[in-house]
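Data deposition worksheet. Section B asks for the primary sequence of the deposited chain exactly as it was used as input, without tags or linkers unless they were present during the calculation. Section C holds the resulting structure in token form. Section D is free text for depositor observations; keep each observation to a single sentence. Incomplete worksheets are returned to the depositor.
Section A, Depositor: J.P.
Section B:
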Amino acid sequence: MKSVNILGAGIAGMSAANFLAQSGFKVTIYEKCSFVGDSRDGDYEGIENWIFSENVSDFIKKIGFNDKKIIKYPVDEFYVHTDSSTPILVKNNLPFFNLVKRGSTKECIDYQLYKQCLKNDVRFVFDSKKIDNIDIYATGSKKATAYVNGINFETNAKNQSHLLLGSSFAPKGYAYMLIVNGEGTIATVFKKNKIKNQSPLQKCVDYFATRNIKFNNIKYFGGKGSFNYKKTKLSHPFFVGEVGGFQDLLFGFGIRFSMLSGIAASKMISGSKVSAYSDFKLLRKKMKLSFINRKLYERLNDKQMFKVALKFSDASKPLSILENAYKWNVKDLVSLRKIKHKYEIYSS
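Section C:
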């Protein structure tokens, strides 16, 4: 098969397309929006450095993109906030994550990947609603078990990163504020909850307003996602990215999950099946561990979250704590069983 059709011009779809184009395939991406990144909101997201063995730059090079063409902002310290305690500073000698902007403008990772795909002769067809003969589906999540509400704003505050934990900021989830070069994002990611799905966003905004953060030109955004574990097969047609359930179920950004899932599907199509199954096996393991970590996280109350944050702050290498959380031997520790579309954890 020398011609490949991909539905969805997100990070997973473009990762797959770029890899296949470099392998000699004629690739067409069909996208329902008018341009790449049009479904995004110009907010900042993080590419984590603790789930996979390679750092972010080495990972991007490994999957076939030019890392120097992608604008990233490394973050090696951030503050953790809970509802009933003073902020806790967590620092590390290496970056916890790299911030990237999501959207359709030149400073956004979506646009930067798009330009690299064009260089490799990937064809884009925008405003495409219904397409047949799709080989790779790389669209958004179909079912929602979590919501995202946030604001983008302009500010004169310095660059900074904050994580907010607790039921008032993000029930069973997390919230954050990221500021880069005068642009900021505040977002809360929370599960369907008992308060009729009211958004805790205003609580987060008010919290930082009392700490002398000025918000100018505010723009609201929202979205949905899933914290549920989804078992996806590596077979044609391939489902990658969010629609395939490939994401970090603990903290949710999952950019590297999306990109690697696109690469795994591309390797299957190009005939590199051994390497494809190796990538797929790694993804499945990390997804299971992220699901376990989420279930453990959801058991914590606000006071326990504060204690966990203190341990991170006191650790000499807090990044290694996060890395170890994704290195457990799944077979020895847990088994996953599906009961009425829900999952339970059983300790061995």
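Section D:
The chain has two domains: 3-43+50-69+104-142+227-291, 146-225.
The first helix runs from residue 11 to 22.
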